UniProtKB/TrEMBL annotation:
Keywords: Membrane, Transmembrane, Transmembrane helix. InterPro entries: DedA_domain, VTT_dom. It comes from Fulvimarina uroteuthidis. This is DedA family protein. It comes from the Bacteria. Residues 23-143 form the VTT domain. The keyword Flavoprotein does not apply. The keyword Transmembrane applies. The chain crosses the membrane at residues 12-32, 38-63, 123-146, 158-180.
Amino acid sequence: MDLARIIEHYGLFALFLGAGIEGETVVILGGIMVHRDILAFVPVMLCAAAGSFVADQLFFMLGRRFRHHPFVTRIKTRPAFGRALAIFERHPVLFIFGFRFAYGFRTVSPVAVGTTDLAATRFLAINLVAALVWGAAFVSVGYLFGEAIEAAFGRIRSVEHVVLAVLAACAAAGGLVFLVRRRRARS
């Protein structure tokens, strides 16, 4: 089975997982698959939105459930957490809607919101709409700029090269995050 067939069969599931774990890069790749007519726009957008939504709901619930746990208490002392809460206090709806678009706030923000007194149903509703907008926006970027993205990689002729390039970039980013966390843990 070639890679295009694998993507046709398992691509939406992989996109769901990737949107929740990694985010924009995977969703843009999904948009490129739409551009190449391997996957359809609406299912790709819905899977991307669902992956982001589920991840953010999970982080929110973890923040809510463990708000007094020593680990969360330690995270609360970090500057990013404090900035997230300060912005949330001024503009709660706008913050919930927009945190997924702000690099560096995507994971910590739902945990931070979970530690507040915001009703879980309100977070769920805003998060759902925001995830749909986010999914549509980043799939559209991949779809609309698919040729430009491919040109940046040197006129790629097959989908395998795009997937391998993205996987290599994700592996490099994951390695860097691992090294930074390990270094911080030693400090």
